[in-house]
Amino acid sequence: MCTNNIQEAMAMVFFKASTIPTFIFLLLLLLSYDMIIISLAQTQAPAPGLSYTFYQNTCPQLESIIRKHLQTVFASDIGQAAGLLRLHFHDCFVQGCDGSILLDGSASKPSEKDAVPNTSLRAQAFAIIENIRRLVHNVCGPVVSCSDITTLAARDAVFLSGGPNYNLPLGRRDGLTSATVSTTLASFPPFAGNTSTMLAYFGQKGFTPTDLVALSGGHTIGISHCIPVAIRIYPTPDPTMDEKYYNYLRMTCPTGESTNTTFMDIRSPNVFDNKYFVDLMNHQGLLNSDQDLYTDARTRSIVTNFAVNQTLFFEKFVSAMIKLSQLSVLTGTQGEIRANCSRVNSNDLLILPNNQDGKLASY
Ligand code: HEM
Q1: What digits encode the pLDDT tens for the residues 16-66?
Q2: CATH, domain 25-222+264-355, list 3.40.50.1370, 3.40.605.10, 1.10.10.10, 1.10.520.10
């Protein structure tokens, strides 16, 4: 039994988690492919330079290529969906959604990737984006940016895990620079922060308290390492934490330095649903930044509303995600369309014609 299965079994024992076997779940999703669409996207005007029909003539197959590829990836490992969703958030929060998170650094010039909040991003997420880039460029030529691919992959990660489907404005261009490690570090709120800290960080970028709570609902899928959790269980339990959950976390993270991982949403860790908010109401939120959304009077009722109304959560999540996806985008003649997502074009000594550049790596 692999570590993930053991954790899942433990979570089932402790919380009777409703984890639908992944293959049945994906089958249901395939059947309902076109049935769940939140068209609310069209109600938000795109940022200047972006459009809902951007690739209509230049790459009409774009969205189907991405969705089909991710269906295959997730059929063998649904956990990768969480990695892609987090990757998009971490791209957009540092100098905007410009694909700068994807750039490799060097020993003398570390990149965003090398900064602490990003070192726990899944390596496979980067490989998946580059694989999609190859597939797309092989069909359409080098006309689609890595930042648009990252944005669409996050959308499909949400949908293919059971969340809402929505349309996205496209036309982002890739940035030419990576932020420094210190700028990257300063861009993210600390996981030990409380709701005031989160409201301040997200407010600065134009997000409302409802946006913050909805986006935090991204923690309905995926895993965390023990380190961000340790401060809540060692040396003494956080008093806001449910006792049963505390015992579970102590077993999963036997020491503060443990390299184990634990689910972000104990009830349905692989399904994009509103159970994360049910967790918070039961004092079973994982991070301090999660649980405090229920403790703080300013956000408590939003948590409760999402916990009892998944449709409302999905609507607000979609609206906040579209906002997130348009933060400081580069458009028009700004930036470039990278021929390899991990480096800017000027660093490519050899770009093969039409990007027929090799096979896909695993993932
Ligand atoms: C509100 C501020 C946020 C904080 C403090 C925060 C912090 C964290 C931390 C500490 C982890 C665990 C990382 C690890 O140890 O591997 C994590 C995981 C994750 N976060 Fe957030 N996050 C925030 C907002 C968001 C947002 C807005 C999204 C997306 C909409 C998001 C999506 C995710 C996902 C999907 C994971 C699981 C990743 C995986 O399984 O690989 N987070 N977050």
Answers
A1: 544 444 444 444 444 444 344 554 444 578 999 999 999 999 999 999 999
A2: 1.10.520.10
Q: What spacing in Å lies between the alpha carbon of 158 and ligand 1's midpoint?
A: 14
Residue type, 106: S
**Helix or strand run (H / E) with residue 263:** strand 261-263
Domain ranges of the chain: 25-222+264-355
**In terms of Cα–Cα distance, which of 272, 269, 287 is closest to 5?**
269
pLDDT confidence band for 8 (50 / 70 / 90): low
How close is the Cα of 324 to the center of ligand 1, in Å?
Answer: 14
**How far, in Å, is the centroid of ligand 1 from the Cα of 192?**
12
The binding-site residues of ligand 1, defined as CB within 6 angstroms of any ligand atom, are: 82-83, 85-86, 89, 120, 122, 189, 191, 198, 215-216, 218-219, 221-225, 228, 264, 287, 289
DSSP run (H or E) holding 224:
strand 223-225
pLDDT digits (tens, 9 = 90+) for 264-296: 999 999 999 999 999 999 999 999 999 999 999
Active site residues per annotation = 90
Q: What are the Cα distances from residue 109, in Å, to 106, 123, 176, 281, 339?
A: 5, 20, 14, 44, 21
pLDDT tens, position by position, 210-228: 999 999 999 999 999 999 9
Q: Pick the residue whose CA is nearest to atom 7 on ligand 1.
A: 191
Cβ burial, residue 166 (10 Å; 0-12/13-18/19+)? buried
DSSP string, 97-122: SSSGGG----SSS--GGGSHHHHTS-
Confirm or deny that 88 is annotated as ligand binding: no
Q: Is 290 annotated as a binding residue?
A: no
* Extended beta strands in 18-161, E state: none
Q: Which two tokens stand for residue 26?
A: 């994906």
Q: Which of 204, 213, 219 has the most ligand 1 atoms within 8 A of CB, as the residue to mutate?
A: 219
